[in-house]
């Protein structure tokens, strides 16, 4: 019973710290957000932060994983609304790209994330997105809707294109101006996979 209570308390503390960090990182950026302010906002000590995440960078990784996971879920829900699986896949990629205009996503996931956590393609949340895309590409290749391309290669290039488009938008001086160009190029590149582009 005591172990269960301790596990619940740890889970609650993690959630408090992630929520406080998410707010602070969005408002101030990772570098400017102090650990003392983060822990005070969560009503916890630095010890709780170290115990749960190792350090401030570990906390950023948890926040990025949470937001990026939410982005993937939102994009997949948008894709699922399409009757055509191919259009669903494109809609999913485009939705992910469009999220680069959201301040929280832009600051935490697309700017601070790569700067402090390294290559986004290696993040756990990105790998989950890759697996889901690969499964759909496999089905489309098997049904001859797409050319007989290696599903993993195609999935990596599709997810990579969406991610890099989002990174480009976030880092640009005028993100709203870049968005339509990025989406148009993403769609044109993606349609090269179609078995019969002229009739799709």
**Helical content class:** over 70%
Q: Supply the helix-strand structural class.
A: mainly alpha
End-to-end CA span: 59 Å
What are the low-pLDDT stretches, counting only 5+ consecutive residues below 50?
none
Q: In this structure, how is the largest beta sheet organized? A: none
Which range does the strand content fall in?
under 5%
Could you state the order of secondary-structure elements as H and E?
HHHHHHHHH
Mean pLDDT: 91
Radius of gyration of CA atoms, rounded to a whole number? 19 Å
- Net shape: elongated
Number of helices: 9
The count of strands amounts to 0
Protein name: TetR family transcriptional regulator
Domain HTH tetR-type: 11-71
Organism: Thalassospira marina
DNA-binding region: 34-53
Give a short synopsis of this structure:
This protein has helices spanning 2-28, 35-42, 46-53, 56-80, 85-98, 103-117, 124-142, 151-171, 175-190. It contains 9 helices and no strands.
What this model shows, in words?
It is a single chain. Helix 3 (46-53) packs across helix 4 (56-80), helix 5 runs antiparallel to helix 9 (175-190) and helix 6 packs across helix 8. With 200 residues, the protein is an all-alpha fold. The chain is built from nine helices and no strands. The chain starts with a helix and ends in a 10-residue tail after the last helix. The model has no long low-confidence stretch (mean pLDDT 91).
């Amino acid at each position: 019973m005591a172990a269960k209570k301790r596990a619940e308390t740890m889970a609650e503390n993690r959630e408090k710290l992630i929520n406080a960090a998410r707010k602070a990182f969005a408002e101030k950026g990772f570098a400017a957000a102090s650990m003392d302010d983060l822990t005070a906002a969560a009503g916890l000590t630095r010890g709780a932060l170290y115990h749960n995440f190792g350090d401030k960078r570990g906390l950023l990784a948890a926040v990025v994983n949470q937001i990026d996971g939410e982005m993937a879920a939102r994009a997949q829900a948008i894709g699922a609304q399409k009757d055509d699986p191919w259009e669903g896949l494109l809609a999913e990629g485009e939705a992910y790209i469009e999220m680069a205009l959201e301040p929280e996503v832009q600051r935490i996931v697309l700017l601070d994330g790569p700067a402090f956590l390294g290559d986004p393609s290696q993040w756990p949340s990105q790998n989950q997105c890759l697996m889901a895309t690969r499964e759909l590409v496999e089905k489309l290749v098997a049904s001859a809707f797409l050319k007989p391309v290696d599903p993993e290669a195609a999935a990596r290039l599709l997810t990579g294109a969406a991610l890099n488009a989002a990174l480009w938008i976030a880092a640009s001086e005028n993100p709203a101006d870049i968005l339509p160009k990025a989406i148009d190029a993403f769609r044109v590149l993606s349609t090269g996979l179609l078995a019969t582009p002229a009739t799709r």
